[in-house]
Amino acid sequence: EPFLRLVNQGMILGEDNQQMSKSRGNVINPDDLIQEFGADSIRLYEMFMGPLEMSKPWSTKGLEGVNRFLARVWRLFIQDGQLHPQIKVQEAGKEEIKSLYKTIKKVTDDLEGLKFNTAISALMIFINEEMVRTTHSREVLSQFILLLAPFAPHMAEELWQHLGAKKTLAYESWPSYDEQLLVEAEVEIGIQILGKLRSRVLVPKGMAENELKERVLGDETVRKWIGGRPIKKFIVVLHAKGLIRG
């Protein structure tokens, strides 16, 4: 076959979890939904439903949820028909930059793997984090629009114009990120006492074992469970979650 890669998409089932058919009366007419929710919402929801290769039941409530997400994006950018005054030409803070870079990496990786649903989840997480900020960097939100464009192209293009762009975003470069800024300075350590997880502490990455022991034994919850008894063994188990068992 003349294809380098073949991906079999799953079937969209009716809301009753059965194959759509007129005889069952469970057919969804996309034209009606586009009239009510818009093409971007339909497009976004179909990619958000689940893994591409799986069959998935349609859910109008799920579509409504995605539509609410796009409405939140719009409210973040637009107020009274104009660009929101909270969007400013300013240097982004460290946390805002880190949130953006994490989103760029996640969306980029997931698009390459055709994991559209998890890429959209990353966009939703970014918006949740951005909504709590009092002001927003214009440059950061410009990069977000470029990430949104493959999923909701019509809204993304309109928001791009509101940001003052004179040309379509279709010719813009895909956002990039600094890998170094994604390295976590701290890690969360789980603490087990007698084989059961009792507490968690946040410690600097690469902390020496003697300092780590002091930090753990100083934890109020740990002191409660130990109850002043002597420690027979203090074992540091190094793996992805940084588990400590004592």
Helix content: 40-55%
Structural class: alpha/beta
Shape: extended
Sequence of strands across the biggest β-sheet: 8-7-10-9
DSSP strand content = 5-15%
| Mean of pLDDT | 88
User: Could you describe the largest sheet, including whether it forms a barrel?
Assistant: 4 strands, mixed
Terminus-to-terminus distance: 59 Å
Query: Mind telling me the C-alpha Rg?
Result: 24 Å
What's the number of helices? 9
- List low-pLDDT spans: 240-246
SSE string, helices as H and strands as E? EHHEHEEEHHEHHEEHHEE
Count of extended strands: 10
How do the strands and helices of this protein lay out in sequence?
Blueprint: E1 12-13, H1 30-37, H2 39-48, E2 56-57, H3 60-77, E3 78-79, E4 82-83, E5 87-88, H4 94-112, H5 116-131, E6 136-137, H6 138-148, H7 153-162, E7 186-193, E8 196-204, H8 209-217, H9 220-226, E9 235-236, E10 244-245
Parallel strand pairs: 1-2, 5-6, 7-10
Antiparallel strand pairs: 3-4, 7-8, 9-10
Helix pairs in contact: 1-2, 2-3, 3-5, 4-5, 4-6, 6-7
Describe the structure.
The protein has 9 helices and 10 strands. It is of the alpha/beta class and 246 residues long. Strands 8-7-10-9 form a 4-stranded mixed beta sheet, with helices on one face. A two-stranded parallel ribbon has the order 1-2. Strand 9 (235-236) and strand 10 form a beta hairpin. The protein is extended. Mean pLDDT is 88; it is low at 240-246.
